[in-house]
Amino acid sequence: MSRRPPILILHATGTNRDREAAWACELAGGAAEIVHINRLIAGEVRLADYRMLILPGGFSYGDDLGAGKLWAIALRYRLAAFIAAGRPVLGICNGFQALVKAGLLPGADDGAAAAGQQGVTLARNDSARFECRWIYLEPQSASPCVFTRGLTELIYCPVAHGEGKFVAADAATLADLEARGLVALRYARPDGQPVAYPWNPNGSAGDIAGICNAAGTVLGLMPHPENHIIDEQGPRFRRGERGQLGLALFRNGVRYAAEL
Amino acid sequence: MKCFRVQVAPRTGLRDARGENLRRQAEALGIAGIERIAISDLYFLEGALDAADAERLAALLLGDPVVEETTVARLDAAADAAPADRRTVEVVLHPGVTDSVAESLLEGARVIGVAGLARAATGQRYEIFGRAEADALARLSTLFANPVIQSYALDSRIAPPFALSQPADDTVEIIPLTQADPAGLEAISRERRLSLDLAEMSAIQEYYRGERREPTDVELEMLAQTWSEHCVHKTFRALIDYEERTAEGRPAGPIRRIDSLLKTYIRAATERAARPWVRSAFVDNAGIIAFDEHTDLAFKVETHNHPSALEPFGGANTGVGGVVRDIIGVSARPIANTDVLCFGPADLAFEELPAGVLHPRRIADGVIAGVEDYGNKMGIPTVNGAILYDPGYTANPLVFCGCLGILPRGAHRTAAQAGDLVVVIGGRTGRDGLRGATFSSMEMTHETGHIAGSAVQIGHPIHEKQALEAVLMARDEGLYTAITDCGAGGLSSAVGEMAAELGADVDLARVPLKYSGLRPWEIWLSEAQERMVLAVPPAHWPRVQAICAGLDVEATALGAFTGDGQLRLRYGERIVGQLDARFLHHGIPRRRLRAVWEPPAAHEPDPAALPTGPGGDLTPALLALLAAPNTRSKEDVVRRYDHEVQGAGVGKPFTGAAGAGPADAAVLDLRFAAAQMVHEHPATSNLQPATVRRGVAVSAGVNPAYGALDPYAMAWAAVDEALRNCVAAGADPDQVALLDNFCWGNPLLPDRLGGLVRCAEGCYDAAVAYNAPYISGKDSLNNEYTGADGRKHAIPGTLLISALGIVPDTAHAMSMDLKAAGNRLYVLGLTADELGASAYYRLHGLLGAHAPQPPAAGLALLRALHRAIAAGLVQACHDCSEGGLAVAAAEMSLAGELGLTLDLRRIPRTPAAGRDATLAFSESLGRFLVEVRPQDAAAFEACLAGLPCAAAGEVQAAAAHGEGRCILLGLDGRPVVDAALPALDRAWRGHSA
């Protein structure tokens, strides 16, 4: 395998953080390529030729029928083999919403896709508004997620969404996610205090910002780690603040993909 | 055909965030007694469907099974009796108004294989619980529905808004005018709403007499559009006789003849500056400057005022979409948006609203949502802006939308060749936005909403996003020879301009329509959004089609550029219009206008009459200034805009320890975007942090209040503020380009035009003083509103100056938050007795007389400050604008969560500035407050040698006075301002002390 694993950034009509995801992959040592989903559907491009897949943020198909909904329909039967092969998938913001609505996250017990079975969702923010603000993410050490593996430092990056409130269908579903360690990232405060708005920017249950599948190879998260890949992007860079880069998630993913 | 109604509601017991939000809005509008509002979405599905199909559509496409409940019923099924415990309002869009959700629903049905769905429509249902009185409900309905684009049903089910299908209509009217007398010509102009005056109608009459025929409706509408104020800027090109008078109305000098405001004041300033980095000024859809050796930047600011008054969401939405297309129209990728918004007071009493006008709060909510929707969905960060409130904007809000783009040098091609195809890509054409160009060139009345409903468009940002990607691919492959956007005037304007030299032959029957029934002139003039026109050599046409198809973009060849200078319009084989391009573009007679400037009779108030706290304490005034609507934090608005997308923002809208300080300018680090321009793919090895990181700062200057005293002073202040903001953030003052946007009243009234001339003179003098070129500009005139009572409401003449400055190295970009206790505070620039029209005077309902005058140090001061910043000698820098030095100090303090002391005795000042309030709140131009480390002080002072600059204070640790205080010492050495940071913060977040 090449030292720069090929990574597919899947552009759907209306996604818009494709290029930042590509830059993050490049900085993390991958070889990123942005491809419109139409080319995948037409068979011009094969998923199997890539080691990692990123579903970037944006407003796929305008989010007209609910965030990520139409994209989910396009994806729900197309990713099963890729996921079953254990290749890593990262869904960011709209990509996360699509994975959830396609039933690919959290997925079935055995780590396979559960197309059409939606047990959790990303509902409207409690504020009922789109909000863009910087938040802290705490990687959960109990999670099997390959993207957060070994990360101990908080990640600092922006959220930019109107529908990011993590909701499970019922208490049992939520408890099951927690028990299986599928919560990979939580909203956090650097001082360790209990998290409330705006630290938890949308009212997510359990301060959940990202979840993975049982195999740990598929991660979805609402915040945008691809918007903090160099120190200068941090809002307090001028005050001397460094580190806590979202790039760490991409480094882990690319390393895992390279070793496959 | 069967029709089903699907209702999607939040699951019982789950939070209805939208409903809660709406109830808060109702409360803010003063509607009492409402306990709860529940919102459901409605979908209407029509076609060869059975119940199972409808259920399948609903299950797969509509609603979220985790948090929502979906009910599907035949439309003709008996409705349940209306529940007695609530009122209901159901709302749908008028037939023909863009409904992107319905479009997506049709597409989704195709994907999931429900072929029978023929038509879809959407709506909302509001259930109102509580004691809503009848008139409260009527007022509430303005929150739910705008009659310009929507209809609603009270306590009943609404019918789906399917358009009656109309047969194609190829009717072309002939309008006889060659024999008309002057009154007849004016009647034709009035009846067809052409907005052409007698001289213009007569020129058209002459042309057709020469042609020995009468015009078709297509031709006449095209002439009216091409000759509209909006498109041809008649006022700025007119010959003006200008007279200045004294405040007593006596002549103050001879009458002067001005040969075009544009040429005399705007372009002349650009020519005088003669900056080599200006690559295109006033020629293309946007101004273009050089960024580095490989790339250029394009910047444009537009207004969308009248549409936003009628339909705030759609007006602002398409305002953003329009200016973004201007940037795509110069082959650039949009990288940042700006918006400056002017509204009436949010707390205006309903009784004071002119008839037919939406409440300012309703307008503001809609406009902000419109800006949010378009920018966020296109993935363009909204990085800079302002919101101003004044009663003068109640009936006529101002919505300035700006867009910055980046393009590889030489990538923008502007020379269509004979034989190239006329290709339209993007959205389809409907009846939306007919006559928008002429509509925006008229004054509004209380009936405008009813008559001009079709002038309002609803945007579809995803169409534009995909069109953008298609254009950039075609650009990089060199597939087109010219490009422009369809804005005001639609295809008529876009193709008309592209074919101005060559001529073209176009078949209107080929234009893809949203629905049938449009007449040829409607197709040609429609301002349907999200369309671009390209000149494509026939050899490249198959590749352009393939690119567009791959990105879900529709592309159609309408005809070809010919080379015979004739614009020939067909509908199928039949010619429906033919115009000589020379007459179309050069036949308009020049206007001659009269302008009179008479300054207001103004006087300074007695200082003793201004209230202070005990012992002359100015702390209450400072807190009130921070809490004033124009000054206070706009965080609740700005966080609704995605300002992080594209990842270039290193100077954010909010800065400081808690991310809440108001930045002077946005700073973008373009290393990723620029690297991508050089290399073909994002897969580039050039992404590692470079040693020098070139960036760009974007800022604005606007202060309409000074215009009440003197528009000349207002112009100077706007230019000065835009430059100050840019330089404070790290831009090089010798690499700043300016954009001018005038919003004014009716220019045919000599007093309005007199103010406009004064303003343009100020623009020239200020730009020349700073050696800064204008690269693009726009004027929006006729911003007046005549109410049902016949009273005219003119806006305060408003000039927005936007600035685009190069930051040579973003490592030295600056922020305004205080960094560390013990650092020194320097005040740069002279403080003069210039409280006229200041925020401080306005707080007390006063105007005063002395508006800020041009600063003496000007460019030399900016250059010296920039040298100090570039040398790393400055820790924080903030410009002094509204609220003066005191507000600037308070903002720096609360952004840095550090206290400060500032001694007003030590600041550079003129002899006349001899009172504490003057020194604290005067809004003199050319001033900065700068934080410098003690070890850098000597080097900093050396940079500023010979200029007005003094160390006047120190940053204090937050704990120094218990909790961190902002202290200003007055002329007698005692504190005149002493405020704890939490008090400042509360005020700045809008909670008045």
Mean pLDDT of chain B: 92
Provide the helix percentage of chain A: 10-25%
The helix count of chain A comes to 7
Q: Which stretches of chain A are poorly predicted, pLDDT < 50 over at least 5 residues?
A: none
Tally of separate helices of chain B:
31
Oligomeric status of the shown chains? heterodimer
CATH superfamily of chain A: Class I glutamine amidotransferase (GATase) domain
Greatest contact between two chains: A-B, 64 and 69 residues
Counted up, domains of chain A total 1
Helix/strand order of chain A: EHEHEHHEHEEEEHEEEH
How is the main sheet of chain A built?
Answer: 9 strands, mixed
> Using DSSP, what is the number of strands of chain B?
40
Keywords:
heterodimer; A: alpha/beta; two-stranded antiparallel sheet; 22% helix; 23% strand; B: 993 residues; alpha+beta; seven-stranded mixed beta sheet; 31 helices; 25% strand; globular
Report on this structure:
The complex is a heterodimer of chains A (260) and B (993). With 260 residues, chain A is of the alpha/beta class. Chain A has a single domain (6-258), classed as Rossmann fold (3-Layer(aba) Sandwich). Chain A contains seven helices and eleven strands. In chain A, the strands form two sheets. Chain A has a nine-stranded mixed sheet, sandwiched between helices. In chain A, strand 1, helix 1 (18-27) and strand 2 (31-36) form a beta-alpha-beta unit. In chain A, helix 3 packs across helix 5. Chain A is globular. Chain B is of the alpha+beta class and 993 residues long. Helices cover 31% and strands 25% of the residues of chain B. Chain B has 31 helices and 40 strands. A seven-stranded mixed sheet of chain B has the order 17-19-15-20-18-21-22. A seven-stranded mixed sheet of chain B has the order 35-37-34-38-36-39-40, with helices on both faces. In chain B, strand 39 (965-969) and strand 40 form a beta hairpin. In chain B, helix 12 runs parallel beside helix 13. Chain B starts with a strand and ends in a 5-residue tail after the last helix. In chain B, 59% of the residues are buried.
